[in-house]
Amino acid sequence: MNRRIDLDVRVDWRASVSLVGTVVKYLSVALLLPLSTALYYGNGIITFGFAILFAVTVGSLLERLDPDPDLGAREGFLMVGLTWLAVALVGAVPYLVAGNGTVAEPANALFESMSGFTTTGATVMGDISFGTHSRALMIWRQQTQWLGGMGIVVLAVAILPELSVGGAQLMDAEAPGPGIEKLTPRIAETARVLWLVYLAFTVVEFVLLYTLHLGGFAPNMTLYNAVAHPLTTMPTGGFSPEARSIEAFSAVVQWVIIPFMVAAGTNFALFWHVIRREPSNLFADNEFRLYAGVMGALSAVVAVILFTGPALGGPGTPVEVAGETESSLRHAAFQVVSIVTTTGYASMDFELWNGPAKYALLFAMFIGGSAGSTGGGIKIIRWLVILKSIRRELFTTVHPEAVRPVRLAGRALDERALRGIYAFTLLYVVLFFVGAFLIAVDASRVGLDITEIEAVTASAATLGNIGPGLGMVGPMGSYLDFPSSSKLLMVGLMWIGRLEIIPVLVLLTSGYWRS
Amino acid sequence: MRVIVIGAGEVGSNIAESLAPEHEVVVIDIDGERVESLTYDLDVLALEGDGTSLGTLKEARVKDADMLIASTDNDETNVVACSTAKTISDAFTIARVKKTSLLETWEGSRGAFGVDFMVSVNLLTARAIVSIAGLPGAQDVDTFAGGAVRMAEFEIVEGSPVADQTVQEADRFESLTFAAILRDGEVTIPRGDTVIVEGDQVVVIGSPESVRAFAGELMPDPDVDEAAEVVIVGGGGIGYQTARLFEERGMRPRLIEHDPDRARQLAEELPKTVVLESDATDLEFLSREHVDEADFVVAALDSDEKNLLVSLLAKRVGADRTVAVVETADYVDLFETVGVDVAVNPREVTAEEITRFTREDRTENVALIEDDRAEVLEIEVDGDSVLADATIEESAAEFPEGVVVGAITRRGELITPRGDTVVEVGDHVVLFVDTDVLDEVSPLL
Q1: Buried b (16+ CB within 10 A) or exposed e, A72-91
Q2: Chain A contact present for B32, CB below 8 A
Q3: What Å distances lie between residue B135 and B162, B214, B341, CA to CA?
Q4: Is there a contact between B43 and A188 if contact means CB atoms under 8 Å apart?
């Protein structure tokens, strides 16, 4: 053993990096799906063969840093943060090796991969078609979102026995929302339950979509599409192999996808209660009720706006919503659910909508899914707590002596938990503004002409892991025209947004690295 | 199996920690912060709530539980938790109590309060103290196989006759096995040519006679017998039980108690004990009462600091050996470092006893070594065991590193294990197992 001297670093980074290596090594197993797709279609075999070799080699090398890693609390944060960076880097390899289209450039490949794993769904793929890209690569693009949805680290905890002891803390760093809920005594089993529920939903959605196709109700929903779309619905991802997203499919397909997006944005622990025959827990859950209520109300408002608004028509594909009850309801509900859950699918080009409808969507971008879901954003539960504490603030203004704990489902919340929620929300808003400012500055540096709303929504859509914004980055647009520096900034925003800021920011403090 | 532990204090956490690798553990505690920290520290389900309330027990799915361990610091809470659980489940209930009165009630009427097994902290601690008193120099003592086998841990002090000898040279006793050497907190399994150095802790397993002979070798002190001078300081629950156990052995201990009413009560209940009402930190009193000539001083006052002080004072005036009761587990090593011969932690003793109960049925007895770095188990060999009908050498090849067969008893007779000894079904085998390989070894036994 040659022990090199670490410069006064109190974090056993080797242990963290070694475990990241293990995760990267196992990522090669996930690459078997695109490889078999490549074998089936006879296109892209070398790309994925190389990617698998690359993942195994890099993973094994990193593992050798510490043959017997022992994760403490600090190492856990580092491991989670680095895992996401590492899988994004390894996930970019197929785009680079395939070498087709715009995503073959390094910055673009990393953007597309990070956007995939973080379930953002923002794309820099210039030409989304099988003419340019192999079917295997397109399925990989879908699959990155599926892997990132329930969480890579959660999957690792479910599979790797060495993560069972510190697993709760790792999952806490990765899982959306404040804190985690252990469903079973063993954290590995909890992780497995979450993944199995997630898998079950994915399979059910596939069966439904493919049945519709076989029944003749969804001519475009071929076997390939029926596999590809559930892989990005359940993680609230939003990538689609179809350039026109969900607009490419029939109305009935759009209706079917809505409830699956709703489920994806719901706390998966609640489904566990439903499975255990306590379905009342789902409807009694404060967060779920607010989540459903907000989406219902917003959908209704947008539906009215669309119904009474001007006639809309996209280039070549006129969409009739004005005066059409079913159509305005469907697009309103689909789009609102898609944005609130941070999926980012589009049932039509909402860029064509009028101002009020678009602003409703901009508002929806700041809501987020539920805690413990696969959604991004600020999360319903935090808003709920903030609203309740504002009410308390108003009450104590009138009654200065009043002692009023903030209650959630009848239980008084710890003031520390409240502080954490304030801090997160404030940080989120600050990061969003800083991001928007930097994107605007960077665009003017290279002479790219973008509007304020484009800079703002690009920042919000990447930080919130939503995907499409408005204007140039709208549902049928892409992030391709931004300079590389902006793309790397957005890669950072997606990464920070997916891990909910604090676990990443803590790595940047000097106190973390020293005693 | 599914085990519910009520009370996440030191004992509860300790039990939960030792069970977590093999069982589904649910821990209930009223203190939210403790629950939070347990959620992240151990692989268990931690719930916030009152273990005596039906709602909490239902949330913990006590119906599906195989065992419930009530180990809060409050006797009545533990008893009530057990009886509440009994009304809605068939779980085996274990209650930890301090009060002797509850234990006496329960022993007089088994199954009282819906408690299937009652663990008395004071009694267990007293037993540990008395068995240490019987083996000079021993840090930890446990008996197995109905008393036919004994395990003891000794510290090798400076100038010890076995220091710098190889295990082969030191092992001059019939029917004694050197199971392990603990050095700098690491467990090593000694081979014949391993050299024992000063500061090591040696774990031996064998017949009580050979263990005692080995102890005599290490410490040529007079053995603690009926003539030994025992002084107990502090007449609380532990002090009282310790005095009572010494009385049962036909000895006449002296018990120092500060509180006049309590001293009077003790004097009434302990006919063979000389109860002295005084402050044990009074040096003049100590010399007047010839504590300097005591063979064995037990410090069992209600605070760790006082116990440390009393032990050191007793050492200072010339007592041979001191044992101090230490409530804080983290202080055990510290106390032994600064001069207390043996520090006994009641919570550890209790956790050990409860862990014994939670082992699979075939494991009858467990001792935890050095803060659970290793365990000594007693098992009854059945047909499925790797040990059955094989020689020790053959089964040793099956086990990972870190397992030593310490002793075998057949129909109550001790057999010293050698490489060619064949183990038969029905034998009781005492094994030393390193905790790191415990999960691997358990299914093989």
Answers
A1: eebbbbbbbbbbbbbbbebb
A2: yes
A3: 17, 10, 12
A4: yes
Name residue, tokens 């647009």.
A477
A17 touches chain B (CB under 8 A): no
Q: Which residues pair with B275 in a beta bridge?
A: B255
Within 8 A of B67 by CB-CB distance, chain A residues are none
Contacts of A186 in chain B (CB under 8 A): 24, 43
Count other C-beta atoms under 10 Å from residue A514's C-beta.
Answer: 11
Whether chain A has a CB inside 8 Å of the CB on B42: the answer is: yes
What does the alpha-carbon distance between residue B398 and residue B444 come to, in Å, rounded to a whole number? Answer: 9
CA-nearest residue to A76 within chain B is: B40
How far apart, in whole angstroms, are the C-alpha atoms of residue A235 and residue A342? 9
How many beta-carbon contacts under 8 Å exist across A and B? 28
- What is the token pair recorded at B86? 């009994």
B130-B136-B138-B142 Cα dihedral, nearest 10 degrees: -40
Interchain contact, A168 vs B25, CB within 8 Å: no
Report the interhelical angle of B121-133 vs B346-358 (nearest 10°).
100
- List B380's β-bridge partners, or say none: B428
Angle between helices A484-498 and A73-98 (to 10 degrees): 140
CA-based nearest residue in chain A for residue B27: A185
One digit per residue, the tens of pLDDT, for chain B of length 445 reads 899 999 998 888 888 888 888 889 999 999 988 898 888 888 899 999 999 999 899 989 999 999 999 999 899 999 999 999 999 999 999 999 988 788 888 888 877 888 998 888 888 899 889 888 877 677 777 777 766 788 888 878 777 777 788 877 777 777 788 888 888 777 888 877 888 888 788 888 888 778 877 877 776 554 545 557 899 999 888 999 999 988 888 888 999 999 999 999 999 889 889 898 888 888 888 888 888 888 889 999 989 999 999 999 888 888 888 999 998 888 888 888 888 888 999 988 888 788 777 765 556 667 777 767 788 888 888 878 888 888 888 888 888 888 888 888 888 788 878 778 888 888 888 888 888 887 788 777 7
B44: which chain A residues are within 8 Å (Cβ-Cβ)?
185
- Chain B: give the shortest CA distance to residue A495, in Å: 24
Nearest alpha carbon to residue B320 among B239, B231, B240, B200: B231
Alpha carbon distance B97, B8 (integer Å): 15
Give the residue carrying structure tokens 């090669």. A28
- The whole-angstrom distance between B66's CA and the closest CA on chain A is 14
Nearest CA in chain B to A163: B43
Q: Chain A: give the shortest CA distance to residue B185, in Å.
A: 18
**Assigned token pair, B233:** 């300081």
Report the run of H or E that residue A339 belongs to, with start and end: helix A325-340
- A187: which chain B residues are within 8 Å (Cβ-Cβ)? 43
d(CA A377, CA A177): 10
Checking phi first, is residue A356 left (phi over 0); if not, alpha (psi -120 to 50) or beta? alpha
Contacts with B224 (C-beta within 8 Å, 6 or more apart), sequence order: B133, B134, B136, B230, B295, B296
Nearest CA in chain B to A171: B40
Question: Collapsing DSSP states into helix, strand and coil, what is residue B342?
Answer: strand
Flag if B45 and A185 touch (Cβ within 8 Å): yes
Q: Is the dihedral of CA A358, A360, A365, A370 positive or negative?
A: negative
* B35, closest residue in chain A (CA to CA): A182
Chain A contact for B367 (CB, 8 A cutoff): no
List the beta strands (DSSP E) in B114-158.
117-120, 138-144, 149-155
CB A454 within 8 A of CB A469: yes
Contact at CB, A185 and B2, closer than 8 angstroms: yes
Asked if A14 reaches chain B (Cβ–Cβ under 8 Å), the answer is: no
* Residues of chain B contacting A73 with CB distance shorter than 8 Å: 40
Residue type, A282: L
